[in-house]
Specification:
2 domains, alpha/beta, 492 residues, 23 strands, Aldehyde Dehydrogenase, Chain A, domain 2, Aldehyde Dehydrogenase, Chain A, domain 1, six-stranded mixed beta sheet, 17 helices
């Protein structure tokens, strides 16, 4: 995307930034600067806010109807699919994920997400009549207004697509604020939407740091904020939005438990956790990083997990044979190393990995790691590490396993492994999380997704994710008006 190296995408067009400030993008595999891009300033934010507000007040996009809006988004999906290789390469250079995964995973999933959301949006009635004890009421589902979408560095393109597309489908202007570490790939989304016919003013992209981020979410013209990232930052966003009664959707951190029951097969569990823990170098909020296994079978489950971790090919993300690339940045690798050191100081032991791979002297690489002899009270079992580290914790039966799984500040994801369907459903019903998997680790893009406790507020994906970007208005009707409307409006 170097053709826009000196420009920002504001109000639907590429233009010069207000200042000379720039952000350097570092390739995690080489530790070299790939490119620098303009950093958005307060003045750039003001332009984006003004354009989004004007577009919202004009109302042309919201009045266009869902079919017209969906058609624009679907045209953009085609364009994104045609540029999958270029987008995937950009992501690999930004965040270090293997090229095979960025092209075949992140980008292809994003194309599918656009089409799925468009289909779902068409099925959400913008008007319906509700009947009951009182007078009939016409329910109008209206766009919430100007949306701020803040996206993370660990899955930047897919997250930006999900948030921006959902908001646009429901008729809202969007201001996207990507992570300053991964500001490049979202430019392809902006370009595709422009070519697909998105009207001016409806989309701006502001790569920037914390100052502009806080100004964006604090702005009185921003009606809703959707954020994916750390729990600490999410708490700050929630505080700001709460003070001014802005709608907020927070998808935050996790420390999810894989509850393994005594009838599970160690090899089958390890096969799932190979991806469930170590995918994207462990930089996944839903990763099953607490592996809670029967004490009576502790050694065999730990050994199977170690074998799976040791078999993962770590290396150059441009190599087709690579399964795990580097961590996304130096600070993240430092965090992983400190977490492991803290775990060892508290009594944990390294069962697999635990250090920087031999022969990979450049790049922020780290070995897939398994820590054993871990108690759920240790820091490595309490805090999100966000790296390729699993901790193995013993349990003494189903009830004890559920207790350990629930003994966490987080509640984003979880899983149970067992051959007994009823035991699986029982455990699933007793663990307090927003999402859960049985004998698997699933990130389901077609079902509502989100967490409880410190893992967030609200749901993304599916109908619930789209409805976040709307408000309901109740219009009370006289019998005559209700009768007239029933010919064209759904009655529920």
């Amino acid at each position: 995307m170097d053709r826009h190296i000196d420009q920002l995408f504001i109000a639907g067009a590429w233009s010069a930034p207000a200042t000379d400030a720039r952000l350097e993008v570092v390739n995690p595999a080489t530790e070299e600067v790939v490119i620098s891009v303009p950093e958005a300033s307060a003045a750039d934010l003001d332009r984006a806010i003004a354009a989004a507000t004007d577009a919202d007040r004009d109302g042309g996009w919201r009045r266009a109807g869902v079919d017209a809006r969906a058609a624009v988004l679907e045209r953009a999906a085609v364009l994104i699919g045609e540029r999958a290789g270029e987008i995937g390469l950009t992501m690999t250079q930004e965040m270090g994920a293997p090229l095979s995964g960025t092209v075949g995973g992140h980008v292809s999933a994003s194309v599918a997400t656009i089409r799925e959301l468009a289909d779902i949006a068409r099925r959400i009635p913008e008007q319906e009549i509700r009947t009951g004890r009182g007078p009939d009421a016409l329910m109008l589902r209206e766009p919430v207004g100007v949306v701020a979408a803040l996206t993370p560095w660990n899955g930047p393109f897919a997250t930006a697509v999900n948030k921006a597309v959902a908001a646009l489908l429901m008729g809202c202007p969007v201001i996207c604020k990507p992570s300053p570490q991964t500001p490049l790939d979202i430019a392809y989304l902006a370009e595709a939407l422009t070519e697909a016919g998105l009207p001016e003013g409806l989309l701006s992209v502001l790569p920037a740091g914390a100052g502009v981020s806080e100004a964006l979410i604090s702005h009185p013209a921003v009606d809703a904020v959707t954020f994916t990232g750390s729990t600490a930052v999410g708490a700050r966003i929630g505080e700001i939005c709460g003070r001014r009664f802005a709608r907020v959707q927070l998808e935050l951190g996790g420390k999810s438990a894989a509850v393994v029951l005594d009838d599970a097969d160690p090899q089958a569990v390890a096969k799932v956790l190979r991806s469930g823990v170590f995918r994207n170098a462990g930089q996944v909020c839903t990763a099953l990083t607490r592996v809670v296994v029967p004490r009576s079978r502790y050694e065999e489950f730990t050994e199977a997990l170690c074998d799976a971790a040791n078999a993962i090919v770590v290396g150059d993300p441009m190599d087709a044979a690579t399964e795990m690339g580097p961590l996304a940045n130096a600070a993240q690798r430092d965090r992983v190393e400190k977490s492991i050191a803290d775990g060892l100081a508290q009594g944990a032991r390294i069962a697999a990995g635990g250090g920087r791979p031999k022969g990979l002297d450049r790049g922020y690489y780290f070995e897939p790691t398994v820590l054993r002899d871990v108690d759920n009270g240790m820091t490595v079992a309490r805090e999100e590490i966000f790296g390729p580290v699993a901790v193995v914790i013993p349990h003494d039966g189903d009830a004890d396993a559920v207790r350990i799984a629930n003994d966490s500040a987080y509640g984003l994801h979880g899983a149970v492994f067992t051959a007994d369907v009823q035991r699986a459903l029982d455990v699933a019903g007793r663990i307090r999380t927003g999402t859960f998997s049985i004998n698997s680790c699933v990130n389901n893009p077609t079902s509502p997704f989100g967490g409880v406790k410190a893992s967030g507020i609200g749901r993304e994906h599916d109908r619930e994710g789209l409805e976040f970007f709307t408000e309901l208005k109740t219009v009370n009707l006289t019998p005559a008006i209700s009768t007239a409307l029933r010919e064209t409006v759904v009655v529920r």
